[in-house]
Structures are given as structure tokens and as C-alpha cells.
Amino acid sequence: MFGYIRPAAHRLPAQETERFRTAYCGLCHTLGKRYGFAARFLLNYDFVFLVILLSDGTEAACVSCRCAAHPLKRRCAMAGQRALELAADHSVVLSWWQLQDQIADHGFWAGLPYRLAALLLRRAYQKAGARVPQFDRSVCRRLSELSHLEAERCASIDRAAEPFASLLAEIAQHVDEPDRRRILQHILYHLGRWIYLIDAADDFAGDVKSGCYNPLRYRYAVAGDELPQEVKQVLAQTLDESIRQMSGAYALCDYGVWTPILDSIFYDSFYGIGQAVLSGSYHKPTRRELFRIKQRDEEEPL
């Protein structure tokens, strides 16, 4: 995924900030333990959000472990939760196929960084694909569907967002309880739709300049490299509708100790991130900045 989702820091007391930190560190530790040190660089807030959604809502046990960014310091990391392993497995598979998509979208020289990253991730992907083979096949199939839509310059934002939304919804199949599974499936579907569209808005200018497909360009027949204000208003409405769908489903389920953190995300963060992207005030970090953010977040993840 893309790292857009994080709690609204101003809504959280210190206790909740620390709880989120344990999930963040727990996923980092799990990625390293299951897939090696390089896999830790896949860590982002979207996957931590997935850990919380997949958790059982009880207070998780913590273990003291070494911090990869600050080896002399020890951290309290969430442990003993199946949600950590599920999020790690799915994050590796999804990241691998996103790299393949980037390799396909770029020429030989421009695609070299993605080829190198894929080479470093290959063994981890093979392990993760064996652990979640159905999801692995689904991501491959859905991204192929998306490639066909891109090739035909699909002007429907719903059709364009469908493959990514559907593949995220499939992660809910790992939830045993039927009602909770249906709720999570609905949340993840609209999460995928929201992420796809917010990323399209965020990347609009760059996609126009590079000639990459962007559904907003064709849906709204935008001639330049900037979305007109009236298009932003319409897009804000459809983004907000996905947030309302997620929030409505979220309200049907008890998330226990994670409720304050999830409240801040569903009722605050999603709207704030959408406004920031559409207003142009959101800044997507470069790879170098992402590494620095990871080091900083080991100290202060919010």
C-alpha cells in the first residue's frame, strides 16, 4: 500500500500513542523475523492499520526487542497476535506485485531501482506467496485486470478502482467469525477504493507529465496537469462516500482496546488526508525521506 493512513495525533492521549507504537514496532519486528532485515523497509502506516483491523481487540502482549533503526535501544513490540503475521505476509505479497507493476510501467533505466528492490525481496515474496497462495494469485489477477483498464484508458473511476478494492477485501477471508468477516470485507473494499483514488489525485500532475495512466484525467477530461476546483469538489464527495461506508461498517463491530485509535482514523484522519491531498498541501515522501521517517518514527511514530 502507500502509507497514507495514520491516527490523528491530536485526538490521542499518551497511552494510545504508546499502544499504536507497540503495533508499529510489532509489525516491523515480525517482518524482520519472518522475512529478513530488508522486509522491514516495507513497513508503513497502512499495514499497521491492517494489523489493528485484524486484531481481536484484546490487550496484546509485548516483548522487548532491539530497534532496527536504533540498535542500542530496546522497544516494546506487540507480540503473540496472528494479525501481525497476516499483515506481514500480505504486505510482502502486495509490495512484490506493486514492484512488478512499477517495473512494467517504466523503461529499463527508470525501472532499475524497482528491479533492484524486487531482487532483494524475491526470497521473501516466495515465502509469503507460499503462506497466502490464494491472495498471491488474486493480486496477480487483479493487477492484470487493472493493466487492461489502463491500456484502454478507462474513464470510469469505479471500474479503475475495482481491482485494488477487491483484492484488499479478500484479506478479510482470514477472519473466522462470519459477521466480523463481512464487516471487515466491506471496510477493506472501500479502503482500497479510497486509497486508489486518493493516490490518483496525489499523483495527478506527475502522471500527466510522464504519460502514465490516471483515471481522473479521462473521467473529467482534464487538459492540463492540475485538477480544476470543481473536479476536486466532486472527487471529495466520492472519497467522503467511501469514508462513510467504512465508518458505517466500523461502527457495527467492537474493536476493544483499539477503539480510540480507530475512532481517530475513521472520524478524523481520512477526511484530513483527503483535504490535504486535494488542496495540494500533502507531501508524499521520497525513498530517502521514507528511510528518515522510519528512523524518526522509531522514536515518535505519530
Outline:
The chain is mainly α and 302 residues long. The protein is 67% helix and 4% strand.
Textual characterization of the structure:
Helix 6 packs across helix 7. The protein starts with 13 loop residues before the first helix and ends with a helix. It is built from 12 helices and 2 strands; from the N terminus they run H-H-E-E-H-H-H-H-H-H-H-H-H-H. It is mostly helical. The chain has one domain (9-299): Farnesyl Diphosphate Synthase (Orthogonal Bundle). The chain is globular. A two-stranded antiparallel ribbon has the order 1-2. 67% of the residues lie in helices and 4% in strands. It has helices at residues 14-35, 45-54, 82-105, 112-131, 133-151, 157-169, 178-202, 204-210, 215-219, 229-250, 259-279, 287-299, and strands spanning 61-66, 74-79.
Task: Spell out the key features of this protein.
302 residues, Farnesyl Diphosphate Synthase, two-stranded antiparallel ribbon, mainly alpha, 12 helices, single chain
Topology record:
Layout: H1 14-35, H2 45-54, E1 61-66, E2 74-79, H3 82-105, H4 112-131, H5 133-151, H6 157-169, H7 178-202, H8 204-210, H9 215-219, H10 229-250, H11 259-279, H12 287-299
Antiparallel strand pairs: 1-2
CATH class: Mainly Alpha
General form:
globular
Portion in beta strands: under 5%
| Major sheet size, sense and barrel closure | 2 strands, antiparallel
Count, helices: 12
How many β strands by DSSP?
A: 2
Q: Give the uncertain stretches in residue-range form.
A: 286-295
Give average pLDDT, whole number. Answer: 88
Distance between the termini: 18 Å
- Report the CATH architecture: Orthogonal Bundle
Helical residue percent band: 55-70%
The computed structural class is mainly alpha
